[in-house]
Amino acid sequence: MDKRTFEELVGKYLAGEATEAEKALLDQWYDQFHDDPAFPLDDAAAARMESELYSRIRTGRSRVRILPVLRIAALWVLVAGAGVLAYTQRKAIFSVFNREKAATLATARGEIKKIRLPDGTEVWLNSGSTLQYPESFEGDVREVTLEGEAFFDVQQAPARPFVVRSGPVKTEVLGTSFNVRSYAALGEVKVAVSTGKVMVSGHERQVTVTPNRQAVYHRSDSLLQTEEIDAAAAAGWIKGDYAFRDATLAEIAVALENRFGVSIRITGAKLPSKRMTAGFSAEDSLASVLENLRETAGLYYKFDRPDAVVLYE
Question: I need a labelling partner for 253 at 20 to 30 A (CA). Which of 45, 97, 168, 186 fits?
Fold first, then answer.
């Protein structure tokens, strides 16, 4: 089996599209792996494999197919032990099993939590967010996974980079403080730097971000760019303060949901992408914020329930 055929078969298998004959071919290859050459994967392919493997193991979906997936993973590990497998593949596979030992911190709407990671890094986790991190950082990379928003004050360790994975975006630092906003409901992932310097990558592009600048990754077209911002304002949510400049209404709505523990529905196809400048502090009530949006942006609102708001023009 050549490399291209192997990658196509595994890709179809993980997508649930492999035929019984193709599954049997993979099993046969597993049983006779010592007669086949290794097929090195690039970093992107290894990352995709890691994500798919972990997803199936973690969620327990398609239980009938989990065992063959683990056999493929085990095969890669065995070949790695023989010194044939590429380092990126070994790291991807071992990362899957290491993640099973990860701890998870989650916040509900209206809730903010602070945690100190095993390496001394401090993290403030915003509302509606989830952070996965190992019980102990081993190896030459300190890696966590974020869904939502968090501010990181990273403990310096020049020989061990600190990596935050948030969807398609990877943020790598040595010792610095920065904010990552990566809510699934938003079309952008933003990484704002307060101190130090970070490397942000996404879709085969990489940018360096310095203090009072942020990287913006657009999910729709995979565009990655940088822009000037007020880093203190970007992390103001830690104290309950929010400041938005040329932000979409969708972004503001997510902040309001998290701050006040409500759900917000925006009517109209174009309204969620409407851009505006707005802000509110820890002392402001939801009613006062909504009134301010009505007066300054021409938005109207109504309550379907005490915890459900509709925004419209």
Answer: 168
Q: How many Å apart are CA 227 and CA 230, to the nearest integer?
A: 10
Q: Can you tell me the distance from the alpha carbon of 163 to that of 297, in angstroms, rounded to the nearest whole number? A: 38
Task: Say if residues 145 and 168 touch (Cβ distance below 8 Å).
Answer: no
Residues 80, 41: Cα–Cα separation, whole Å: 13
> In the CATH hierarchy, which top-level class contains the domain 102-232?
mainly beta
- Summarised one tens digit per residue, pLDDT across range 83-95 is 444 444 444 544 5
Residue 235 and residue 293 in contact, taking contact as beta carbons nearer than 8 Å: no
169-199 pLDDT, tens digit each: 999 997 899 999 999 989 999 999 999 999 9
pLDDT tens-digit profile of 245-296?
888 999 999 999 999 999 999 998 899 999 998 889 989 999 999 999 999 8
Q: Domain map of the chain by residue range?
A: 3-99, 102-232, 240-312
**Contacts with 133 (C-beta within 8 Å, 6 or more apart), sequence order:** 102, 103, 105, 117, 118, 144, 145
For the record, the structure tokens of 89 come out as: 């593949």
| pTM value > 0.70 | no
Decide if domain 240-312 falls under CATH 3.55.50.30: yes
Q: How many whole angstroms separate alpha carbon 186 and alpha carbon 184?
A: 5
Interhelix angle 3-14/43-59, rounded to 10 degrees, is 30
Q: Strands, E, within the chain: which ranges?
A: 102-106, 113-116, 122-125, 130-134, 142-153, 162-166, 169-173, 177-182, 188-195, 198-202, 205-209, 213-218, 224-228, 242-248, 263-266, 275-280, 300-305, 308-312
Pick the residue with more confidence: 38 or 18?
Answer: 18
